User: Fold these one by one.
Assistant:
Number 1:
Amino acid sequence: MLDYQIAIPSYKRTETLAKATLSMLKKHGCDFSNVTIFTADKNETKAYSAMLGMVGIRAEVVTGEPGIGKQRIFINKHYPVDTRVLSLDDDIYALSIVDENKKLNPCDWTIDRIALKGFQTCEKVNAKMWGINPVENGFYMDRTTSIGLRYICANFFGSYAGDAVWTATDRKDFSSGEDFESTLRSFVQYKGVVRLDGICPKTKYFAQGGICAEIGGEDKRKLDHHKHLTEIAARFPHLCKTYKKSDGTTNIKLKPVTRGKIAWL
């Protein structure tokens, strides 16, 4: 049995959390005694505790920090050093798995099995971060585990408490692009991150509420997103570059580095 904790940062989305991530975890056989929800203030802590009582789930609620960048750092310091931590966004509605024909199907793995695959692979190759495929499109997925430089999206990733990727004195606490910074820092420090290429989440990227509401709305998010991603790319010019998406939003493209690939079956 793998010993690990599940951390869910959330901001004013009790209903979303109940309908999405908590429901998904229940479907995948989660032990909720290992789950902690991290809120931005004490009033939110009360609201989330009340929600858990209404849906009949026993999980811990901890008052953390406002701003997802600061919250990630808080979560990293909350647990004893080297604790395995699976971090999830509050709006993961389902998980899908790709088959040999690039077709997506409902994922039939338990959350324990996914965590076991991620953390055991990290420990085998001396990495400290793993994630799943951020793209819900079978064309871009494979039934392999990649080791190298791949984008580890913060909506579903594993890490180890106390890691200097988060605790370093020069670590930024940006709320926008913080997962790009974590991915790049982890790659530089440990020579690779791990990604399960064949599992992806069903979620809504940049949905209303949550981080957008927390940092001042959609317009401010776009301005901060451009500024912060530009700064991140400038610190890792040999590993990434910025580009504009079709809607004009700034994004980062990582240099693909592959140290190895492991077939699942």
Number 2:
Amino acid sequence: MPDAPALAAALDSPRADAHRVGLAVVVEQRYLHQRQPAGLIAALEARNVSVSVTDPDLLVHDFTSRPWIAAASAVVARGRSLALVTAMAVAERFGVRTINRSSAVLAVRDKAAMAAALVAADIPTPDTWVGPPAELARSIRSSAYPVVLKPVFGDNARGIRVITGAQELLSLPWPEDTALAQPLVPGDGTDVKVYAVGSRYWAVRVPSPLLPAGDASGRAPEPLPLTGELGALADACGQLFGLELFGVDCLDTPDGPVVVEVNDFPNYRGVPEASEVLADHVVNEIGARV
């Protein structure tokens, strides 16, 4: 797997492969130290696939000439910044195959819109409230506490808090105008993730992001049998949001699994063959374009 310095060096010169036909991987800097897309890139390079790595924050899209990204046979995105979504949208306007589509990334970038879509599609999900924290404190029934409070535009468990009551919520400094709140589902300190590459799914039990860092250390992801219920949830979420590479975060409840959220292009923790399966998927898409 390429290490972070190697990927960073590639990002230092995003125009080096400007006119080279191949696969473009557009990745935010903050993902350079994570499992993906480094694993995918290594698997593609082992197959002699030409890969260019680009930081979306360094891109200028010159519409007086053909943008560099239009030379790629396909583009894979890792991230959800507006600069990244713009790069994907530009590629799509020039007929380039993108994985995931920009519309799919946008559909799960906003957790409030995602929650509304899940409810409208009758996909089982916890009770959800969205609004300014002070108004949430006045609206959420006392019996619903403790609740999990999330930034609407957060990811990688950033900013998640467990709130025990309305007074705590009223006094909480919050970085966004709105927040999303859901009741804390009692459990054993683990969550179930269903990872997807196209129509291939895996179920993995992982430590909950709500655990203190020390409690989660040493807990390795545990592969689980993929039940029909979990597979059906993954199918429904993939179709609802138009995603190819995605993860579905689930919680076990007495009534069965419920979907907490859906994420584009996750790290596939606990799936050792994920990089090879990702490379298979991308190579098949490149072959369909050339």
Number 3:
Amino acid sequence: MPETLSILDRFLVEKTEEAIIDGVQLERWARDPNRKVDEELLDLDRPYKVPNKAYGYLADVEISGKTKSVIGARQEVDFGTATGPDPEGQLKRYVLGLFMQTAQWIRADDRQGGFSFEQMLYCRNDGQIGRHPVEQRSGLLDWSLIGPKYRWSLATIFLHDFVVALGPVTHQFSEAVAVVQHPDFIHIVERPAPGYKLEVAIGYPFIDYAPIPNYFGFGPGKFDWAVKLFSFLLKDNNQVKCNMDFVAGARPKKVFDFGEHVPCPLYGTATVLESLTFGLYKANGFHDWMDTGMAAQHSRVHQALMEGTSKIYREWVRSS
């Protein structure tokens, strides 16, 4: 690493290398067609225009020889239809060069929607590590550059649809995560399954770092390790599906984190109730319910992303 890198930069580089090692293992597990998890259909509790299904699951995954507990969220979305003489090429161009790069908009109430990005650090194929130039930090790198030019690139994603309902009160939080573009998370597969012509998949591991500090015990920037995967599937009739999977762990010990020595007001209360009832009340059941709710919250953020990006995709297909 060059001497010009700050202490924070060096910390982020180390976290990036760790995230790649763990993330590749999670990605292989998530993409394994033979994996077995018990899924629960999630109620996202909001109306959406784009047809979708969301499933949550709690599972155990082996990472670097150790069994770890994870929270997962898998989503299926009817994304749109490819057209023209080369639908396969069209889908590749969109997923690799436009999907993430155009995933932001202004809503009717003047709020930002979707995701916006800021480049941080990179490692080129020759091993050179550095910070992206200031004039190039806005946006996300074209995925076709990951591998041929860059070994990895670290970016911040600002989440503009992180809306949490606490009883009758709804609040939009300013949240961000740091993720890594890496070639092992890019897949272009012909005839991936019967009835499908092409799969174009991208994804990224998260680093254990919160660009915007928050009080969540498990949430943006608070994962020990996590991956997000987007698989765009082109059917024989040129309809496009987007399947998403999110795997994060270890399962949280706190919902809200107000300090090392401050008990979680939710999980802590559940533990006290279990003690007071001599085990009649099961804290683990409450934990499972809350963790599944976290999977639903993640799915709401990404279904909002699909609502906006599918509209942009349809307009881009018409214009091209």
Number 4:
Amino acid sequence: MLNEIAGFHIEPTNMCTLRCLRCPRTNFIEQFKPKNWDNQNLNLDHLKQFLDIDLTGLTIGLNGNYGDPIYYPKLFDLITYFKINKCKITIHTNGSYKSKEWWKDLANLLDEEDIINFSIDGIPENFTSYRINADWDSIQTGIEAMVRSRARIVWKYIVFSYNEETIDQARNISQQLGMDDFVLNNSDRWEDNDWLKPTKYAKIDNAIDGFLYNGSHAGGRDSTITLWKQNKIPDKINPSCKSTNSMHFISANGIYMPCCWVGDYRFYYKSEFYKNKDLYDISKTTISQLLDNKSKLTKFYNELEETRPTYCTFNCGKL
């Protein structure tokens, strides 16, 4: 498995300026109060020593369960490190509250193999129905700067009840701004009788390589989650982490996990990755040591289909 790694999913920070309605960050803070929230930024030196393998050609997805990577204080240093190591970068961001100069500096670091996904769920008049606290003017500033870069610029649009009739308008805006792609995303984060749930699912008519959906918890899992709500656990799993070998997740507090779903607070505190977090602390080990043939982590991957951890059946349940 070590020699076949295709990429890493890295959460540089858990900080964000938004308060999206179905975000684990928002839910955690509302459920456990702000005093129990601890802002975290990934230690770049620890990350470098942890990644003791040839990174050439790997895809690095910068995203996370809780934060927006553009608020990571050392983002430019992080990207520079990966570009020196000939990696492909994919960034997921809402894009709010950064200056024109900041975006120009970012653009200078990226090339034609890199992707920036702007998560904008609607048109300027309605997208803050979900992306609470987002700011269209600064997002547009970022888009206008990035479309002049060599990177591929994508508008990623999750379909909700309030925006399912404005898809064409948003697509037209993306084209007017000179963006490369407009991608629809169907979410799976519905509550019972959820007002956000659209009356119909939009057809996902194109896809972007390199972690487009990673971290968005979107698409294709509604039947599995419905079974969970009915207390019916899927009999089998189809683990994405093994099929793609690109889901290796590193959280903002420096813990390795098989994928970002393990880091969701609903699962993390009951998982072995929390109970044995010293073993998976990137400051105390390397990816080579973790994936040694005789390691506990390798055993975890080999037995995944049999043990079927909760986060796996929830996210990768096979019906």
